[in-house]
Amino acid sequence: MLSRRDFLKAGTAVGLPCSPLASAVAQALPEIESSSWCACVINCGQRCPVRCFTKKGQVIRIETDNSLPDATPSPRQLRACQRGRSMRERIYSDDRLKYPMKRVGERGEGKFERISWDEAVKTIADNWKRIRDQYGNDAIYWQYCSGQQSIVSSRRAWQRLMNLMGGFLKYYGSYSNAQLQEALPYMLGGRPASLPSEIANSNLYVLFGNNPSSTRPSGGGKGYQIDMAVTKHMPKVIVIDPAFTDTAATKADQWIPIRPGTDAALVAALAYQWINKNQVDQDFLDKYCVGYDEKTLPASAPKNSDYKSYILGNGPDKQPKTPEWASKITGIPVKTIVDLAEEMASTKPLFVSQGWGPQRQANGEHTCRAISMVPILLGQIGLPGTNAGEHEGNTPFPAVYLPVGKNPVKATIPVYMWTDAILRGKEMSRTTDGVKGVEKLSQNIKMIINSGGNTMINQHGDCNWTDKVLRNEKDLEFLVVCDNMMTPSCRYADILLPDTLGPETVDMACQGGSHGDVACMLAIQKAVDPQFEQKPSWEICRLIAKELGLEDAYTEGKSQEDWVRWCYNETRKKVPELPEFDVFWKDGMAKVWNRRKDTIALEAFRKDPVANKIKTPSGKIEIYSEALANRVKDWTLPEGDIISPIPVFYSTWDMPGDPLEKKYPLQCFGYHGHGRIHSTFHNLPRLRDVHPDSVIMNTLDAEARGIKDGDKVYIFNDRGTVLLPARVTPRIMPGVCTIPQGAWFKPETINGQVVDVGGCINTLTNHRPSSLAKGNAQHNILVEIRKA
Ligand SMILES: Nc1nc2c(c(=O)[nH]1)N[C@H]1C(S)=C(S)[C@@H](COP(=O)(O)OP(=O)(O)OC[C@H]3O[C@@H](n4cnc5c(=O)[nH]c(N)nc54)[C@H](O)[C@@H]3O)O[C@H]1N2
Ligand SMILES: Nc1nc2c(c(=O)[nH]1)N[C@H]1C(S)=C(S)[C@@H](COP(=O)(O)OP(=O)(O)OC[C@H]3O[C@@H](n4cnc5c(=O)[nH]c(N)nc54)[C@H](O)[C@@H]3O)O[C@H]1N2
Ligand SMILES: [Mo]
After folding, report:
1. Which site from 407, 424, 532, 785 is most exposed, i.e. has the minimal number of CB atoms within 10 Å?
2. Residue having the nearest C-alpha atom to atom 11 of ligand 1
3. Which residues line ligand 1 (CB under 6 A)?
């Protein structure tokens, strides 16, 4: 189809604009429907092409990737899900931020007044200089924001500007998988993962807390590839998850419900069975691993600190990890554990993967390593049809993003600890709070820039507590929030900035790290003007840079469009199979298939462990990690926290065994459901209609509380109360309940009590971090439920 721009160009070429016909054509132009390419850049981990049809300066319809003949096997179409296709609803949402605003009430009250861009820019520049001069760059923080994942006009623009201003306090880890990211490399030298297509070579595919049918939704992306691999060879599929998820329902031959936070206990019992039945792959453990038994334990390790001793009850806790022991902890019947052990030991190749639900817990660093113990103990690593226990893998793609420059600030904090750094940054150190880069922080956080994220409140732990932290203007002095929508985080802004959305600006996107076998570049073409005074992040930062006297350094003489082209061409230098920019731009996307050649995790290591050492200190798989033991030797841990060099199970706060259990007997966690990506898309009525929020609870738990399906209930603990309808079903194990994470926090006073009527799970979560990564243990909650 001819676009409006092509039409205009063609017209100009034949001299139309001067003729009487030209004015008639010019008048008719807005009536002509035209199409352009855009991309959904919200962080589900994939990125999808969306096609915008516009007429009269409005987006009238959205389609997705239908750019190839329907039956093309490869490169296939990348089909956006229901959320990606809601671009039009997002653009025209009543919640859009329209103008720059300044806070007029108390912080958090949500009272704002429209201001000019000049005033917004000047206020930001003045406060930035003041805070930097008074407290130093270490007092300025860039907030974790996963919502805007494009290449130029995104967080990259903000970080570029922040570095030009002398830098900022950084974070490490992520809300996605902080525990796993920090712990797994001690064992595996990184996060090796086989491509989804490798599942087709397995005979047994076991997923621990992994729900790709919901969390990898793009058609043509990873979820689709897993489907294809499963259907190709039909391995037996077992899903281990507290909830009967879409993955369990549509892919699994068996669903094994498990209590949250207890996977390491299940694995220990499986190990117990394999050791006692001589089913472990002893040759593999001897040759490729450190610390399975005494033979390969590092010299520095205490006696009986090896994994085998731990399992058999010869370790410090003297507890044999029998199926009976594990059954009480996990809630899984003894026979199911015994049968699972037998099935895994006898069915090879075995492909084990984990989602990030199991690790988003207080003991998550141990859980994620424990899950990897399954393929390690059975020698199911580095061979066709196997995986090393991580999420199904992806194709690394060296896309070049807008350069952000260098950040001279050395200090880095765990991503979950920014509220602590506001309150007591100067007390935070390497040994108490996992600070990296420096021994101790020199400042509390005084200023935050938050663009494309809702973690200022909604996505962070313990909303009611966070609300109190943010309200104190003496602690956090200045907060800039930039978004498309009036989110709960926006309510706390001192200056609130309206960003453009989708086809309102020019940009580009690349695969998001969860694309599985395919890699792609996607064009974001400007098709409509912003309706109000929204500006792209690139432009907002340019204006602030200008005010700060940094414009030339910020732009380097290039426009936003120039940078898009530059980033593409730099990427193309690394990926020569990409077409020229103009071809890419016309096609709207460029897909690269089969780029990754090493499709099996640790294949080279398996073939030759001497020539292809993994990146652990010994070059082997470290079941016992001496490096980890050494790193935390001088750490001070809060009571109840454990960091073990081997992946042990331990019960900790806000799970069964905690004295709080008497008051709050139900385990609760927030899952990543179809209705949203986190909090994005929450405000779209159509999606809310199709995926209404509720607390999903077991029939037995509901009966015991006189609750019927559809009843409104209070879900509560010492941190807060949430009001939601109950969904009563046997599709979740007894004693456990779950709420889709991401609903917008909306506290209201009901009968003198503050209740979150928005249904945000983080009203109930703890801001206390996990032990090693100091990560977000947001799946770790005890609650009680009663009828409202
Ligand atoms: N539709 C949709 N897709 C998304 C997102 C979204 O919000 N919506 N978010 C994206 C992002 S940023 C991320 S990081 C990923 C998140 O992906 P994940 O972290 O993998 O998603 P979760 O739903 O939190 O957890 C996966 C499963 O773990 C189960 N689970 C929870 N605790 C335990 C446990 O202790 N043991 C076991 N065995 N299972 C447990 C849950 O029931 C759930 O089915 O998803 C991405 N994809
Ligand atoms: N209890 C609990 N909490 C969780 C999780 C959980 O499982 N349980 N999951 C955690 C995980 S894995 C993650 S990744 C985080 C995600 O937390 P966030 O990174 O905060 O993600 P979102 O909630 O999607 O917020 C993204 C924001 O970006 C905005 N946005 C979208 N496009 C643009 C744009 O073009 N410009 C600008 N300026 N803004 C834009 C959206 O409107 C939205 O407000 O949440 C974490 N929080
Ligand atoms: Mo995430």
Report:
1. 532
2. 44
3. 43-45, 146, 176, 208-211, 214-215, 217, 240-243, 245, 258, 260-261, 263, 355-358, 360-361, 669, 671-674, 676-678, 742, 779
Ligand 3 centroid to residue 175 C-alpha, Å: 5
**Entry pTM:** 0.96
Closest CA to 322 of 385, 393, 252, 268: 268
Ligand 1 binding pocket mutation candidate from 148, 191, 213, 215 (most atoms within 8 A of CB): 215
The HSE-up count of residue 515 (CA atoms within 13 Å, CB side) is 28
Q: What amino acid occupies position 203?
A: N
> Ligand 1 pocket: which of 374, 672, 761 to mutate (most atoms <8 Å of CB)?
672
Please tell me the distance between residue 658's alpha carbon and the centre of ligand 2 in angstroms: 31
Query: At 455, is the pLDDT very low, low, confident or very high (cuts 50, 70, 90)?
Result: very high
| 617 residue type, one letter | P
CA distance 179 to 365: 5
Beta strand spans in 159-235 (E): 170-172, 204-208
Please state the φ and ψ torsions of residue 60, each to the nearest 5 degrees: -110, -20
CA distance linking residue 313 with residue 490, whole number of Å: 53
- Pocket of ligand 2 contains residue 453 by CB under 6 Å: yes
Per-residue pLDDT at 10: 42
- Residue-wise pLDDT for 461-498, tens only, equals 999 999 999 999 999 999 999 999 999 999 999 999 99
Query: Which residue lies with its CA nearest to atom 19 of ligand 1?
Result: 356
Predicted confidence at residue 222, as pLDDT, reads 84
The pLDDT assigned to 755 comes to: 98
Per-residue pLDDT band at 70 (split at 50, 70, 90): low
Q: How many CB atoms lie within 10 A of CB 709?
A: 13
Tell me how crowded residue 470 is: count the other CB atoms within 10 A of its CB. 22
What is the Å distance from ligand 1's center to 484 Cα?
25
Residue where the block lists tokens 């994994």: 307
Residue 606 has a pLDDT of 98
| C-alpha span between 51 and 34 (Å, rounded) | 10
> Mean pLDDT, to the nearest integer, of 337-361?
98
The closest ligand to the CA of 672 turns out to be 1
What is the rounded distance in angstroms from the CA atom of residue 58 to the CA atom of residue 51? 13
The terminus-to-terminus CA distance of the chain in angstroms comes to 56
In DSSP terms, which residues pair with 54 in a beta bridge?
A: 34, 59
Question: What's the rounded Cα separation, in Å, for the pair 454 and 563?
Answer: 27
CA of 679 to the centre of ligand 2 (A): 6
Q: Would you place residue 760 in the very low, low, confident or very high pLDDT band (cuts 50, 70, 90)?
A: very high
SS3 336: helix
Sort 314 into a burial class: Cβ within 10 Å, 0-12 / 13-18 / 19+: middle
Give, in order, the Cα–Cα distances in Å from 622 to each of 233, 300, 311. Answer: 33, 14, 17
User: What percentage of residues in the chain have a pLDDT greater than 90?
Assistant: 88
- Domains along the sequence of the chain with CATH: 1-31 (no CATH), 101-168+407-502 (3.40.50.740), 179-394+611-631 (3.40.228.10), 659-787 (2.40.40.20)
pLDDT at 405: 98
Under DSSP, is residue 413 helix (H, G, I), strand (E, B) or coil?
A: strand
Is the Cβ atom of 150 under 6 angstroms away from ligand 2? no
Tokens of 12: 């100009």
**Residue 384 buriedness (CB in 10 A; 0-12 / 13-18 / 19+):** middle
Whether 573 shows a pLDDT value over 60: the answer reads yes
The pLDDT value given to residue 4: 44
Tokens 């094994």 belong to residue: 256
Q: How confident is the model at residue 74 (pLDDT cuts 50, 70, 90)?
A: low
